[in-house]
Design goal:
Blueprint: E1 4-7, H1 13-19, H2 29-45, H3 47-57, H4 69-79, H5 81-99, E2 106-111, E3 114-122, E4 125-129, H6 138-151, E5 155-160, H7 170-179, E6 183-186, H8 189-198, E7 208-210, H9 215-225, E8 232-233, E9 241-246, H10 252-263, E10 270-275, H11 278-292, H12 298-306, E11 309-312, H13 316-326, E12 330-334, E13 350-353, H14 359-364, E14 390-398, H15 400-417, H16 420-438
Helix pairs in contact: 2-3, 2-8, 2-9, 4-7, 5-6, 5-7, 6-7, 8-9, 10-11, 15-16
Length: 439
């Protein structure tokens, strides 16, 4: 089950590109066609369609989509004190990091008598999607609801797929409530995205949808984001991934554990070790074998490792170049001088420096957000932050003197573009100022 080993400098450009290519995403034309049918059904039939699709796809019967108030107290009692305390501790660190991201108003006098401002306002209503899949994800509820709450979005609804008995996972409910979600709904998949984007009898319509999901959820988010009547989305997403840069001094067991922590997400996850030391590569391969044998999701891990690799490079500088080309969701740097390499790292969703910084801490409670761009989108997208729950508008205000000083510039530029009405909106005012001055 060892990772395939490649020597970077023995590969040509085509081979390098092929090596760094992600596994094919399951979402294809057939998935999109099915998702379109689901979106249309929910738009036409509302709650009835959501219940029917939940019964068909999730094998769960749900009469009331919104989680009733008494379920939250029951969920907290079912979890116990230790679990609730862990959720609260994670909320505390995530909240501390995200509160520091709140923007300050900008006010600049760009020219005498010309004042420009930039103000932020929270989105009116946001939809937060917490997948269930093979495991509940209370951490996702924290990562989504905390920044939405800090941003001040008045309506923060959260959707999560029901369990077979029709209830929502207790840990997700507790995390959602304590993180600030204003309502939780028992529904998942494309039907949940449709309900949030277009609204139903019981689900309010939102402005933007956040959160990870499977191929159907991702396709649904993309489709409603492209619809003027739909809802915006946070970022494109694909399977989870990690790239580890490690030098000869790295602990092979640590490296292997970091690779496996991402490989266990799903069979289409992808992990890479990039190192200048072949002896470390061999030691990590042995550690992978040993640790995988003890994992409950060994089958998933082995499939993920089948399209993952070890890449041997000449030095750490080349390792950073490989990482920038791949643009990983998670980048771990296990090197003696890890922080010294940070200025050279350009494309990564989140970076983990040094031997004592496992990726798991970012997933749960270091404070950074674990909703990150995958599938190479780290080249152009950022991880989730408070700013994505805000919208910004600019304001300008000119005095008469300010218009006198800067107005002729606008008139000249309007003339260059042949836009006479633009110029006249300025010249009319300038003429009035001059007449007033003469009088």
């Amino acid at each position: 089950m060892s990772l395939n080993l490649y020597r970077w400098n023995e590969l040509d450009d085509a081979d390098r590109e092929a090596l760094l290519r992600r596994p094919a995403v399951a979402a294809g034309a057939s998935v999109e066609a099915t998702v379109r049918e689901i979106l249309d059904a929910v738009r036409r039939e509302g709650d009835d369609a959501v219940r029917r699709l939940t019964r068909q796809l999730d094998r769960a019967e749900v009469d009331e989509l919104r989680v009733p108030e008494e379920a939250f107290a029951a969920a907290q009692a079912a979890l116990g004190r230790e679990a609730v305390a862990a959720i609260d501790r994670a909320i505390e660190t995530v909240e501390r990091f995200h509160r520091a991201q709140l923007p300050q108003p900008v006010r600049v006098e760009t020219a005498p008598g010309v004042v420009c401002e930039r103000l932020s306002h929270p989105l009116d209503a946001v939809g937060l999607y917490v997948p269930a899949g093979t495991a509940p994800l209370p951490s996702a509820a924290i990562m989504l609801a905390v920044p939405a709450t800090i941003a001040g979005c008045p309506e923060r609804i959260l959707c999560t797929p029901p369990r077979p008995d029709g209830t929502a996972d207790p840990a997700v409910l507790v995390a959602a409530r304590r993180s600030g979600a204003t309502a939780v709904y028992r529904m998942g998949g494309a039907q949940a995205v449709a309900a949030m984007a277009y609204g139903t009898e019981s689900v309010p319509r939102v402005n933007k949808i956040f959160g990870p999901g499977n191929a159907w959820v991702t396709a649904a988010k993309s489709l409603v984001a492209a619809d003027p009547d739909g809802a915006a989305m946070d970022m494109p997403a694909g399977p989870s991934e990690v790239l580890v840069i490690a030098d000869a001094g790295a602990d092979p067991a640590f490296v292997a554990s970091d690779l496996l922590s991402q490989a266990e997400h799903g069979p289409d996850s992808q992990v890479f070790l990039v190192t200048p030391d072949e002896a470390l590569a061999a030691a990590v391969a042995a550690a992978l074998e040993e640790q995988t044998a003890a994992l409950g999701r060994g089958t998933i891990v082995r499939e993920a490792l089948s399209h993952s690799a070890v890449i041997v490079v000449d030095d750490l500088a080349e390792a950073v170049r490989v990482s920038n080309a791949y643009a990983p969701e998670h980048l771990i740097v296990q090197a003696a001088d890890a922080r010294d390499w940070l200025p050279r790292i350009r494309n990564a969703g989140s970076v983990f420096l040094g031997p004592w910084t496992p990726e798991s801490m970012g997933d749960y409670c270091s404070g950074t957000n674990h909703v990150l761009p995958t599938y190479g989108y780290a080249r152009t997208y950022s991880g989730l932050g408070v700013d994505q729950f805000l919208r910004y508008m600019t304001v300008q205000e000119l005095s008469a003197a300010g218009l006198e000083g800067l107005g002729p510039t606008a008139v000249t530029l309007a003339g260059l573009e042949g836009l006479d009405a633009h110029a006249r909106a300025v010249t009319l005012r300038l003429e009035k100022i001059r007449r007033r001055t003469v009088a």
